Records
---
Amino acid sequence: MPATGTPRSANSRSGLRRSIVAAAALPLLIGALASCGYGSEAEKDDAPKANVADTSGKKLSASEVRIGYFPNLTHATALVGLQEGLIAKELGATTIKPQSFNAGPSEIEALNGGSLDIGFIGPSPSINAYVKSKGSNLRIISGSASGGVKLVVNPAKIKTLDDLKGKNIATPQKGNTQDVAFLNWISEKGWKVDPESGKGDVSVVRTDNKVTPDAFKSGSIDGAWVPEPTASKLVADGGSVLLDETALWPDKKFVITNIIVSQKFLTEHADVVEAVLTGTVKTNEWINANPDKAKASANAKLAAEGGKPLDAKVIDPAWPSILITDDPLAATLKTQSEWAVKAKLIEQPDLNGIYDLKLLNKVLKAAGKPEVSDAGLGATK
């Protein structure tokens, strides 16, 4: 036994007390370290926020901009631009407030209601909204994507285009871009379909893209005229591509996604709109220069939206069928509006002024790129 010092039993009690205190303090210490940037939670919380404003950056006329898009590959400019921070980089101290939509009407409603400033959307909802508001609520300010729409069928039931007669074929929504295109194709075949009910020589079944794959697997539909990635999901489930819509268009190009803006926001915050367009032009350039990286980026954003990425057997064939472009392909929107009139879904529209491409062409010129045309449908003021 030691001649001096604390007895062994006292040492043991003292050590036990220190252990208890240390254990009690450990969670507080971990929390403190995490708040300082250490540990797995901090890595998650402190990861770069692609759409958060750079408070030291340039000051624009709005503190935030609300941007809408769909979780579709045909909205790749939005998916990649947000995921990579390429749009936010141009906005300086202006924060992006992203909003995801599943259908054109809900996005248009948000724009009309003042809860959305800029949106990625198809041509048919743009036309409908412009006409209904008599040209007062939106402008198309850029293109975004062409193509990416296919007619996929059950090959056991449909082997040729003529076999579509008497079959049930899905489109995403009455009067949407794919619905209008399919009704026009049916008309050119000389077949009859009531555009309101979808009944006729072909049964046009309006089905949300989210449930179309299940409807296809169950046999309640025999095929679908749909955008990507829904088309490739049907192929992965045993479907066969009978027609790619690009084959029906001159130069194999047609607008599938444009960028629209609230006229009020455009008037009050043109500098913010120009910054967004600078970001989308740079995003499109990056996508086209880095297709594999861009595909992975878009898939990462889709995973963040839906909880899981697209399977390779879906995204790999879908991705190259979409052309990413700044050009709004205005002449093709004009044609699509004529198809909608022919199908009696809308009355003859006055589309004069639906485009305002001044800021886009300014951005393109500054980047050394060719300007794009509004096909005579540009704003006059």
---
Amino acid sequence: MVHVIHFVLLIVCAVAIYLSCEWFVNAVEWLGQRLNVGKMAVGTILAAFGTALPESVVTLVAVTTGSTPEAKDIGVGAAMGGPLALSTIAYGVTGFILLLKRRRRETDVRGESGMMPARSAQQALGDEKDMRRLAKDQKWFLPIFVVKVALGLVAFAYKPVLGALFFAAYAVYFWREIRADDEAGGEHEELESLRLQRTSASPATWAVVTQTLATLAVIFFASQLFVKQLDAIGPMLGLSTTVTALLLSPVATELPEVMNAVIWVRQGKTRLALANISGAMMIQATVPSGLGLIFTTWKFDGALIWSGLITMAAIVYLLLTMRAHRLTPGRLTVAAGFYLVFALGLIPILS
């Protein structure tokens, strides 16, 4: 009976996260309008900051209150697992949803006219300017992440001082996104009515803020409970605590970003979906890393090094396909395969 409760709670948490994300993306678009920030900054800054909150708090609590090195290592693992899950699972799921949506559209068009639509797979991901901006985000992420991993391989006295540089890197990225001109077209439709004030064409600011904060609270607590259920279910499935922490927990903590991406793709707002993921990756590459460098030894074992290598490989793959103008929903889906490679590579490392 106890086992069943864990599975039921897992499903309940997943549903709660999805429904909360629907309300959250609705509120955060209105919040972006109220703050007069660009459309892309809504995804890279506002939505990313909110959905990255659970993982950042996990790292903060672990590295500041952990009484043993092992407890502090939970925070380091979270700082490494987040970017891995985002660069593989999150992008892969986004590509898969885009494929499903495109095939459904092609089926509808074929049914109406008997002819295949002329729209290409590349267009489904946005125009060339969208791809340049997405590539620019990945180019910001990659060198920061390389330095982050390199610091985990060496030990020296003043390593904690470098934590401040990671906070500074995110501050620069934040300023660049807020100041960036949002000239790309394609998603200028009117916003849906705020869920909290459905009858109002222009909701009150207090309602926008309330809906944003309330949904974030639900996402945060539901994500934490989701992770706890996975920690309990892992051993039931014969998985060790280490495997559960490295493989399942990162996917669970990045679930809000994945849900946001699914919702925005369903609404035809692919730019926001991709921006949310790339923005969350920048937060994960800087803020938790800065905390880890300041409060821990930031020394990696074999599993963490492997996770860093797979993350870098996934980003390099995405950058190469973007540079060749060959990034399609199908190729974006392939990014999820890197997580499978990570899982397979853990077998000899943990054995």
---
Amino acid sequence: MVEGSMTQGAGRGPEVERTATLRDFRVPAYVHEPVPHTAAVIPPAPVPPASAAHSEPPAEPHPGSVPPEDIPGHRADEYTPTERDLPVIRRSDTLQLIPSPAAGPAEATTAGQPAPGPLYVVGDVHGYLDELLDALHEQGIVDANGEWSAGNTRLWFLGDFTDRGPDGIGVIDLVMRLSAEAAAAGGYCKALLGNHELLLLGAKRYADTPVNSSAGTATFQAAWLLNGGQKADMERLRDHHLQWMSRLAAMEEVDGHLLVHSDTTAYLEFGASIEEVNDTVRETLTRNDPDEVWDLFRKFTKRFAFRDGGVDAARELLDAYGGTRIVHGHSPIPYLTGEAGSEDGASGSGRSPIDGPHIYADGLAVAMDGGVTMAGTLLVRRLPVA
């Protein structure tokens, strides 16, 4: 049996509790319904000329928590979702991010067709709706009312919308609404499937049904609570949220960027092409077998494949699915770089917050999880990053 302890959530939203541990998708009509949020009104960001250059601040180390591989007897390649995962700690202040140029109209055409708009990616959100709205606004993607304002911009979320933070369902509702608004403006907003979407789907569908686990008998309900599941999200979860999550793509290649949620090579087990991987994942969720879904979830929790000499692993994934660089979320940058401190953050005092993506594995991998659940930054950045 998995047991948990209680810690306090963080963010500018209400205090929350946690227990220790599509390819393109069609947007249904209900996403046009207004989605309330509690973000403070922000003055509209100026829209620079289309030719304005975009610059990124360098990444800096940030405190966090002891990585799973530092637990005695633990190996990174044997990580299981039933182990205690990243904690949520109290945020003492509001992070200030540097604004980036908003997207302008397409500058060129090809054979009479408008060139595609700029490409942006969003790291793990984990229920921090206000921080997400702030980050999107600072990049000129939404206006002060949280509505799409980026024209033909292409926006990809890398997964993990819920758990740990105060408003996971609000995040999902926002992403669904923005996908409709972006399409109407000539752009798009799409999302990948993260391990926490699989966890929430499993907790809703199977609850306390026992599943086979390498750590012994487990249940989705226990694993969800252990990994920061919020009861308010479960209470607000509806069928259309479940349908939307179950149709998300597991991976995509865009402009030479291989977009995935997890920094793992486990995707190779699901197919020899992006289409096969996405079809396999969706078919697994459609069959509705708890053991199969648990195995899918367990493999999506693996991490650190491209770290510490993982160049060959990165090349293997790129050779299989295309692209020249992997862009992923899942592993917070403080964990990935080894800059994480103790769970209470005491050893990390005085360190600067993460302020940009982490490029590693000889430039073949880009990490986008800034560690918002660790008082870090919710990263929204334009690709390519240098």
